Structures are given as C-alpha cells and as structure tokens.
Amino acid sequence: MTMKVAEPTVERLVQYCRLLEHLHEEGRRVVSSQEIGEMLGLKASQVRKDLSYFGEIGKRGVGYHVDRLFEHIRSILSPPRHWKIALVGAGRLGEALLGYKAFRSDKFSIEAIFDIDRDKIGSTVAGIPCYHPDSLPEILKEKAIEVLILTIPASAAQAVVDLAAKAGTLKGVLSFAPTTLVAPEGVLIYGVDISVELEKLLFYLKHSGA
Amino acid sequence: MTMKVAEPTVERLVQYCRLLEHLHEEGRRVVSSQEIGEMLGLKASQVRKDLSYFGEIGKRGVGYHVDRLFEHIRSILSPPRHWKIALVGAGRLGEALLGYKAFRSDKFSIEAIFDIDRDKIGSTVAGIPCYHPDSLPEILKEKAIEVLILTIPASAAQAVVDLAAKAGTLKGVLSFAPTTLVAPEGVLIYGVDISVELEKLLFYLKHSGA
DNA sequence: TTATGTGAACCATTTCACAGCC
DNA sequence: GGCTGTGAAATGGTTCACATAA
Fold this sequence. Notes:
2 copies of one chain form a homodimer. Chain A has 8 helices and 9 strands. Chain A is of the alpha/beta class. Chain A has 2 domains: about 5-75, Winged helix-like DNA-binding domain superfamily/Winged helix DNA-binding domain (Arc Repressor Mutant, subunit A), CATH 1.10.10; about 85-195, NAD(P)-binding Rossmann-like Domain (Rossmann fold, 3-Layer(aba) Sandwich), CATH 3.40.50. In chain A, the strands form 2 sheets. Chain A has a 7-stranded mixed beta sheet, with helices on one face. A two-stranded antiparallel ribbon of chain A has the order 1-2.
C-alpha cells in the first residue's frame, strides 16, 4: 500500500497517537474530533480529515473509540519492521539523545556509535560499541544499518553523509547539524535545526509588536 | 515596518544567511540564485522570490553581491534589540544547548536557569544562576526575561508555561518537550520535537519502498 | 440530536514563464 | 547573453458546510 500522505498530516498523526496513549491511561473510552482539536490546538475539521484518510474509523453521533483509534494510527505509523540506527557524534547532544526517554522504542535500536574521541573508540558508550567515522561504510554494511542520526558539527556533516552512503545500505538521515545537507541518491534527509527554530521564534516575536 | 512573511520563507532566510557567511569567508563576491539553489536544494525561482520579498537586492545579468545580500538578510532577521532568555531544565539536553556553538549569538543571552535538582539551585550552571521552578514568575519579572527554552519532560512542560505566564513578561517559548503545549494568550510557542522528527523519517522510509 | 466523513471553496506556497535590466 | 524580479498558473493544505449514519 503506497499512500501519499502530506508531511503535516504525518506530524499530527504522531501527536494523535501520543494523546490517545494518554487518554487510554486515563481510562477514557471515546473522544470527539472537537475534543482532540482543543487538546492539540487544531480545528475539529482538520482532525476529522486526518483521521478519515485511512478509512472510516469513527462512529457518527458518537466519536472515536480511544483504543481502536490508537491501534489504528499506530499501525499506520509503525514500520513493518525494526530499523537499525547508528549515532554519529557522542558529544553532549548525542549523549542526551541516548538517554532520552521518548527515544526508546521497539521500532528501532541504536546499533553503533561513531566518534573521533580516541578514548571512546573501541570501547562502549551507553552499552553501544563506538567506532571511528572512517569505518562507517564497513560497519554499516556489516551491521545492516540503514539510518543515521547526526549530532556532529556542521563542518563534518556532509562528509559523513557522503562516506556513509558508500556502504550502500543507507536509507535515511536525521541530522541535528546546523547546516543544509545534500542527499545522495536514494537517501532521505531530515534536519532538525535547533538554532533555526530559535531564530524563527525571535523573528516572529519581533514582528508581533513586542 | 510590519511585513508579513511566510514561515517557510523565514526558515530559508536563515539558511541563506548561513550560506552567505560561508561564501563570504571563502572570499566569494557574487552568487546567482541558481547556485544558491543548488547548494541548498532549492529551485532558483524559489530563491529569487524569497530574496525579492524585501526589495530589489540583486543585479540583473550578474547575480547577488555576497556581502551586500548577507547584510540585507541579516538586518531583516536580526531583532531590533537583545532578548533575555531563561532555560528551564538543566539536564543533558539543557547542558548540550548551553554548550552549543550555533547557540551563541549577540541577539540573545541566557540570563537564568531553572531546575529541580537541589544541588544546582542556588549555585550556577555554566556561569548562569540556577533557581527552583517555583520562583519562575518572580525571577522572570525581576530580570525582564521574555523567552523560555524548555528542556524538561513532557509531563512538566504545560505547568511551567502556565506558571511562567503569570510573570506577565513572557512572549515566547521554544520547547523541546515531546508534547503539544497550549499557549497562553499573547505567548508564541515553537516546538522542536525530536522524537516526532524521527517518526516522520521512519514513516517516509517505510513508504518509499524500503 | 449529535458527531463523523467528505466534496467543494478557500487560502498559502511553489513553480513557471517571460519582461526588464546589466 | 545572462540573470534578476514578478505577475500568473499550478500545486498543496486547510477550512467549510452539509449529507450521512448512529
């Protein structure tokens, strides 16, 4: 099933999923699109459109059954399989991610770490083996790793992506480097740029008559 | 001058700014929209539209003068003044941000830190005084802090925003908590949700015939 | 009556295509 | 000739309004 879903929709699906998990824990059995919208700051019509994208899941006149909807969205978002990920850069941000609660999931696992720190190479960080970035192609192929998370300086990011792409197994990259990366053929790149987000916030604060 | 600029445009302006800084360092004098587009993965027409939003800055048949364009965009993005920011949550992520190079800027300064760790309260972290979150309204008012950066668990985030809003000085929040926040009246909230970004990446990998 | 599902209208953003200037 | 600036067209996403079902 190859269904094209808009990016903002995927983002909201993740939000619905988290909210429904909460509601489930609170013992809530049904919710309306109206209520979901209020809790998430969205229009009810938006919620309904998103949820109806994958078939009729709600009951007219009643609302959505919490558990059923949760499982439904979960099955849409959940990968059909487990992803193997490597973290490149075991600095403060990298270590923060390793210890990040919301980052633990059965959808993926972090199989290798790469860093240039000689003290870390050959040993383990948070129980995960650490290698020198030079061995990226080799290790990625060996461990069948398809996704990279980059927590390294901007200056090193593009080189790492290009090197990693040589393994031939690379499918996606989540980068925290404050730079724009050019994706090699067949590689999907997502960037989370913390400093850009702050700049945007300050820009809009400035322009909202502050 | 209150000009309404679309959010995607602002994001790209920040990217142009960073790229131009690089080009300047490399001694480059002119660039074309075509070249900027290639380096940033954008269409040349997109680049031109963005850059022409604030007046004619390029030279037809030639391109854009690097330094001139850089200063021009900088003046658009730069706040007219300095922002005072407080960081809430001095855990690993918070400390990573404090040490983050791209986060150092003359546009803002981090004036206070809030954390529930008794060892940190009353002392300083990275040279910045640390307080208990209970004193948020008081300290924000006292120091005239208008922006909050949240690096705390999702469960605490909304309460912190509501408490901080009581100070009356709060204008904006940049949250890293994996939850959706409801903004009090007059407060602008930006969320960077790391786990959502990873979920999105995995979703699209799944759907790109991986 | 209440709340979903959805085509149609609306709005925002991107891309095109070409006129205008260097 | 080359490259910008920009209306107009195309695309993408959100909101409306109402038919439909419990």
